[in-house]
Structures are given as structure tokens and as C-alpha cells.
Design brief:
Beta-Lactamase, alpha+beta, 192 residues, 4-stranded antiparallel β-sheet
């Protein structure tokens, strides 16, 4: 090889390195970053809607927001093949019952929902269903705001509203810092 050919090959090689160092669109790193972004958006919007509803009409109004607005916010944050939802070991809405894999992760998160000041997260790419699928979970630690509806001491009017809207409710008895549940983000992985 001549010197200009070696120099050109080396230059092309060096110029392409930053492209190779960046996560590819369907790489696990890129999918985790997107899942984190979706959780942040969904969690932030949900918390804001709940706080506004509680401020406007008390905890019973907040329960109504959880029942109707939370699924809308999840739907609005689910696009491009991404689906965001919530699950728990103690669900309020039976439609949020965890899958077997999610239940295993929740049991592990339950021991330590927060690590180094951040909610614990897990993810995997699995082909168990025949189609590669990405699954991500981020722990939802119980916050002070949650205790009025999910805590150990719930006001009678709140209990009544919960019984009306969620007759199969199991999502009570939590203390601040307990694992309340997890955000779940899934997406089928395109096969090339």
C-alpha cells in the first residue's frame, strides 16, 4: 500500500469511529434511554395531573384522575411501537396485573426500590414469544403524596370512592419508601 492510501484508510477509519461509538437505534442502550425518557414524561405528567386534581377537589377527585386520566396519559406517551404502563404486586386495577417476568422483577425491586438515590430499573430483550421484544421496568417508590390513597390509614370517604371505582383494590397498606409498583415500557424489536 502506498502512503496516501494508508493515510486515507486511517482517516476514514478515524472519522467513522464516533458513529460507531453512538448507540444504534435498536441497541439495548438506545432503547433503555428511550424507555427512561418515556417514564420521565409519563411519571411527570401523571404526578402533575394528580396534584392538580387533589388541589381542586381533594383525594377523591385524585382517584378519579387515576382511573380516567392515567390511562390517557399512558396512551399519549405510547407511540412508535412503544407501550408504557404500570404494574404492581398489589394492583388497584386488575388490568395492571404483572406478567410472570414482571412479577419476578417486582419481587426483587421490593427488597430495595431505590439504589443510590434513584429508582431501581431492569430491562431485557427476549425472544420468548417468538418475536424479539424489549421490556423495561423502573420502580415506583411510595411517596408522601401517595399515602392518602395507598397508605395504611385511609379516610372513610377515600375508602368509599376506592370501593366504588376499584372494587378489587389491593393497593393499600404502603408506607413512604415502599415499592408501590413499577413503570413498564415495552416494544417489539424489528428483525432485520
Amino acid at each position: 500500500m502506498t502512503k496516501p492510501t494508508i493515510t486515507t484508510a486511517l482517516l476514514c477509519s478515524l472519522l467513522s469511529m464516533p458513529l460507531l461509538a453512538q448507540p444504534q437505534a435498536d441497541s439495548p442502550e438506545a432503547m433503555v434511554a428511550e424507555a427512561r425518557s418515556l417514564v420521565k414524561s409519563f411519571g411527570g405528567s401523571l404526578k402533575q395531573a394528580l396534584q392538580a386534581a387533589i388541589k381542586e377537589g381533594g383525594l377523591t377527585n385524585g382517584i378519579g384522575v387515576c382511573k380516567t386520566v392515567a390511562p390517557e396519559i399512558a396512551s399519549n406517551n405510547s407511540s412508535g411501537g412503544w407501550v408504557i404502563s404500570r404494574t404492581s404486586l398489589k394492583v388497584r386495577n386488575p388490568e395492571n396485573t404483572p406478567t410472570d417476568w414482571q412479577e419476578i422483577q417486582l419481587l426483587a425491586m421490593d427488597r430495595q426500590p431505590v439504589k443510590n438515590g434513584k429508582p431501581v430499573e431492569v430491562w431485557q430483550v427476549s425472544e420468548a414469544s417468538g418475536q424479539p421484544a424489549f421490556q423495561y421496568m423502573s420502580a415506583i417508590p411510595t411517596q408522601k403524596l401517595c399515602l392518602g390513597c395507598h397508605g395504611k390509614s385511609i379516610a372513610p370517604e377515600v375508602k368509599a370512592k376506592l370501593a366504588e371505582l376499584y372494587p378489587e383494590d389491593k393497593a393499600t397498606g404502603f408506607s413512604e419508601g415502599d415499592l408501590r409498583g413499577a413503570f413498564v415500557v415495552t416494544r417489539d424489536v424489528p428483525v432485520n
